[in-house]
Amino acid sequence: MAASLFTLGLNHQTAPLSVRERVVFHVERLHEALGELKRSFAREAAILSTCNRTELYVAGEKPGELAEWLAHYHRLAPGELHPYLYTLPQEQAVRHAFRVASGLDSMVIGEPQILGQMKEAARAAESAGTLGSLLHRLFQRSFAVAKEVRSTTRIGAASVSMAAAAVKLAARIFPSLKDRSVLLIGAGEMIELTATHFAAQAPARITVANRTLERAERLAARFNARAIELRLLGEQLHEYDIVVSCTASSLPILGKGLVERALRARRRRPMFMVDLAVPRDIEQEAGELDDVFLYTVDDLAGIVSANLDSRRSALEQAEAIIEAQVGQFMHWMQLREGVPLIRALRDQADAARREELARALKALERGEDPAKVVEALSRTLTNKLMHGPTQTLSETLARLKSIK
Prior knowledge:
The chain has helices at residues 17-20, 27-40, 63-73, 78-81, 90-101, 113-128, 133-152, 162-173, 189-199, 213-222, 233-236, 256-265, 301-304, 312-365, 370-403, and strands at 4-11, 42-49, 53-60, 86-89, 181-185, 205-210, 226-229, 242-245, 271-275, 292-296. The strands form two sheets. The protein has a six-stranded parallel β-sheet with strand order 7-6-5-8-9-10, covered by helices on one side. It has a four-stranded antiparallel β-sheet with strand order 2-3-1-4, sandwiched between helices. The chain is 54% helix and 14% strand. The chain starts with a strand and ends with a helix. By secondary structure, the protein is of the alpha/beta class.
């Protein structure tokens, strides 16, 4: 019996940041979590965990138990997580995967980063041995659909990224960014995008802080910036007007006390801070301090969606492409579900063939007329092969007559 396909998860539309940051799967534990999923609940499994969503793509039969596992894995009571979860079966799961890959389900409509994150999720599942034929096909089709959407529509045109939104917000706090110092914490893709947008404003100074100095230096070199180790933040935080952080740390990097000390050293000059990390890099309480303007990914939602109206036509085109592709994928799934039945029929026919062949060979060994032996073989084999289909057809016709 083929396993059912479904997606279970939560995202920025169903759960606030305070909930999302508690169900993040960190890279170092992803392999272990996937193995646990396959042993207990699923024939196939993949986990997509980003700032805006945590989703389990599964081929299995226990969505209810899976929700309990997700809560337990993150040390939450099932009731705490249940109000924010969605479970999407079969066709809905396929449509959702296609929309996610195409950037249609993102906080930033049309953003391309999610596609790379989905590819990472597929690679992680493949490495863990949990990416079977169904999920492999689902992810590969998702990537192909995303490519078609991007190449045939303008869904990504003029999209405002989180990084660009951070610059827009900073411009509201400071009249000019040209005499401001910018500190970027982390060295991943989001910080790279942020560096690109801030560098375009020609600030007085850009610094990249990272746990691994070598990675910070590589990124800093591209923007004529300087690099420092993360451990130096306590000494140097007060030097920066603008701080943007996005790391994979499971614990906050900047606490309220550290920010408070930096403000005293700045003589209460304001600090603009953007925390793009999930879980958060900057303690929420730091935002309560006077002269601190702290924004999270959820705070940026209004800015990044402001230009959606201009892309409404592209969005409709993208949805039409996805709908057509969903139909094709579901057709493939239906054919796939028929494979075990076809295989069983072939095995049954082959067993009948071998049985009748053995009987015919014995008859020939006894010296019976070869023509009569072959005639008997063909007649008996035909009867055996046609018995099942004939019986099914007769029963179907009888039911049709009774309906009339």
